[in-house]
Amino acid sequence: MIIAEQKPMDEIMGLLQGHRKVLVLGCGTCVTVCLAGGEREVATLTSVLRLGGKLEAVEQTIERQCDAEFFESVREVATACDAILSLACGVGVQLAARLFGDKPVYPALNTKFMGTNEAAGKWAENCLACGDCQLGVFGGVCPVTRCAKSLSNGPCGGSEDGRCEVDPDNIECGWQLIHDRLKALGKLDALTAVAAPRDWSKTHCGGPRRLTREDVAQDS
Amino acid sequence: MSETTYKSGSNLEKLMAAGEFIVTAELGPPKSADPEIIKTKADHLRGWVDAVNITDNQTAIVRVSSLCASKLALDLGLEPIMQMTCRDRNRLAMQADILGAYLLGIRNLVCLTGDHQCFGNHPTARHVFDLDSIQLIRMVRDMRDKKIFACGDEIKASAKAALHEPRMFIGAAANPFADPFEFRVTRLEKKVEAGADFIQTQCIYDMDRFQRWMELVRARGLHKRCKILAGLTPLRTLGMAKHMRDNVAGIKLPDSYIERMERSKEPKTEGIAICAEQIQALRQIEGVAGIHLMAIEWESKVAEIVQKAGLTPRPVPLV
Ligand code: SF4
Ligand code: SF4
Fold first, then answer.
1. Of A158, A176, A196, which is closest to B249 when you measure between CB atoms?
2. End-to-end C-alpha distance for chain A, whole angstroms
3. What's the domain range around A190?
4. ipTM over 0.90 threshold
5. How many folded domains does chain A comprise?
6. How far apart are CA B288 and CA A8, in angstroms?
7. B26-47 pLDDT, tens per residue?
8. Quick check: A38 and A28 in contact, CB under 8 A?
9. Which residues contact B160 (CB under 8 A, 6 or more apart)?
10. Which structural domains are found in chain B, ordered by start?
11. Total CB pairs under 8 A between chain A and B
């Protein structure tokens, strides 16, 4: 899922300067699960915004902010506000901005990455959406994401004791993980061939990506 | 032997082909546009080494570019080995620089991954890593041997023009001290497979582990497919030794050297003595084709080390 975290309060207050009535809009999907922008966080943030009594804050949470249909339920209350503070990921904030063309929409979160929940309060990045998934070759560990240099042909010289040179205390060397996993599977041979340069045009390097599924598009 | 039998015709390649025990050193370009620093370092190295590695924004700190410093070194009478990392350039910039370097007379290129930018003075920079070092090696080899760019196009100015490919002698790095240990030799093999003509290792302090690594290298016959130069960095101070042991990723430094540096009244002399001893030991190891001296900001001592190790005089450049 998408992992996000709330921006510092000062920054949020700065964004809302000059506004009187704000819709604080949560999202019921990823950011609810990662405890950054769900109903609970909306309630907490709203009460903080109300402190001082200058700002009227209306709280709402919709199921998903990455799908236009879910915004219908808040259209009326949004129209009555002079700005929207979205607690969705960057995707949701942008859709809100598109749907409410005449209203300022501000992000309350910093969208961090796509990742897993590792333990209570801990999340880790796992996928960069490279558009050409090679997990099948690399034993289910992503070299693009889990290696700080996105190397394709094995660990750099900075891999030591399973840790990455970038931050040994906090980052595992993705290539050590790939190596160990393939070794356990008896498939280390997969790492002997020289992997060709990646086709980065399938990533964001090729421009903002779009996907059209004719089968689905025709049916609807 | 005629010129055409060489891949690049660099002096380094010729000396290696002739079976000489090679000495290369490192020349780190300055962090300013001061030409005197390069001249001074070149003066320290000229005549004592066979070729000089010109580092590329080493440790992710901005310096005079390796391409320009290589050309300056060439003009100052040294044979440059230009280093190129994957951190700062994509495949377009790399190939453009390789064409340019060849035109300027540069014939040796070492292909490196590059330290992460978090180590240097621009930690907020975006890195590139379009290719990794092995893909870079393959690209340089294909430019030379297949006369094609990474995209597959032939290296010529127009459809009817003649092919003019850059012919580089290709170097790569190997770190016998990084992990996973067993995979290190596989990675070396991949570099050789990709087209590396010679290897320069990370600086060696743990001679036992290096020996074990060389055993694995010989078991796969890799020392016969590429020339391996053993990397050395002389210790200057006790502080430096401890820093190397504790803080530098991928370096293992045994306590015995720390103790010697601690006991000695002249740590600099001791550091040079250790280095010269290491060279003696390395020369005995089958498959070690030479040494690569990374005397970081201590180029002035290279001559002394080479002399102490009995590696003088250096062979005259072959034509
Ligand atoms: S290979 Fe690409 S799609 Fe697959 S996990 Fe890695 S970044 Fe994501
Ligand atoms: S230490 Fe491992 S994860 Fe970190 S950059 Fe090197 S290979 Fe990648």
1. A158
2. 26
3. 128-206
4. yes
5. 2
6. 57
7. 999 999 999 999 999 999 999 9
8. yes
9. none
10. 3-308 (3.20.20.220)
11. 95
